[in-house]
Write a structure and sequence with these properties.
The chain has two domains: about 5-70, 434 Repressor (Amino-terminal Domain) (Orthogonal Bundle); about 95-155. It has eight helices and no strands. Helix 6 runs antiparallel to helix 7 and helix 6 crosses helix 8. The protein has helices at about 5-15, 20-30, 35-40, 45-55, 60-65, 95-115, 120-140, 145-155.
Length: about 160
């Protein structure tokens, strides 16, 4: 790797993010949340994302990649408490096809367990909220989709 460990880059990204939650930071940058989570877990972001992070943090892309600024300084040029740069309009979350397939499979198992009137009783809006909640829960890496997860989240949604 020409610029050292990607985990070192991830640590510098976390340093730029500061006290913001990952989801908030991804929204500020205008990148899909699942993608941002992967960058903090060690995946190398593409150049445009590195530039957005550098711009937000008042650092250079070189610092994100190597930990060194021009002249060898490790100092950032903007303190973290400065208000964030206005983000680009947020793009809709990109759905990962494999995960969505697993969510739909678990949803069909959930529907098969319920009676045939479930769809008519709750309607499409409720079902869309349920599927979306399960997908987002799984996309954050909290647990894989399952019948039990659908049952638990359905109770939470009311």
């Amino acid at each position: 790797m020409p610029y050292g460990s990607y985990h070192e880059i991830s640590a510098r990204i976390r340093e730029v993010r500061g006290k913001l939650k990952k989801a908030e930071f991804a929204d500020i940058l205008g990148i899909p949340r699942p993608n941002f989570y992967k960058y903090e877990d060690g995946r190398l972001p593409p150049a445009d994302v590195l530039q957005k992070i550098a711009d937000y943090g008042g650092v250079t892309v070189k610092w994100l990649l190597t930990g060194k600024e021009e002249g060898g300084s490790l100092e950032k040029t903007r303190p973290p408490e400065q208000p964030p740069i206005a983000p680009e309009p947020a793009r809709p979350c990109e759905i990962e096809e494999f995960l969505f397939t697993l969510v739909l499979r678990a949803f069909l198992e959930f529907i098969n367990k319920k009676n045939s009137e479930y769809l008519a009783t709750y309607g499409y809006k409720h079902i869309a909220r349920l599927i979306t909640a399960v997908y987002n829960h799984c996309a954050r890496g909290q647990e894989p989709p399952s019948l039990g997860l659908f049952e638990k989240i359905e109770i939470d949604l009311g």
